[in-house]
Specification:
mainly alpha; about 90 residues; single chain
């Protein structure tokens, strides 16, 4: 029986052994309001899975969606002036 082995060295194993860079941490911090708003929306949607949505649940989901939209808008407005590394100037 022949054994089939990888011809190339694994190139991604080393990347998981490192800590996040400062740029990655800054990006996470910049996106955290959007992430939190999306988690809040998901929580509101999960609460309605057990039964039919009542008036309060409907309002909770609508407010959470509005927070997600506002967080997305704010994120786009903050990053609109940022330049992309290696991009056209």
């Amino acid at each position: 029986m022949k054994h089939i082995g990888a011809v190339q060295v694994v190139v991604t194993a080393v990347a998981f052994d490192r800590e996040p860079t400062l740029a990655e941490l800054d990006a996470i911090e910049l996106e955290s309001p959007l992430i939190l708003a999306e988690v809040e929306l998901l929580d509101a949607q999960i609460k309605t899975l057990d039964g039919p949505a009542n008036e309060v649940d409907t309002r909770r989901i609508r407010r959470a969606r509005n927070r997600v939209l506002a967080a997305r808008r704010d994120l786009v407005n903050r990053t609109a002036g940022a330049t992309v590394p290696g991009g056209a100037a």
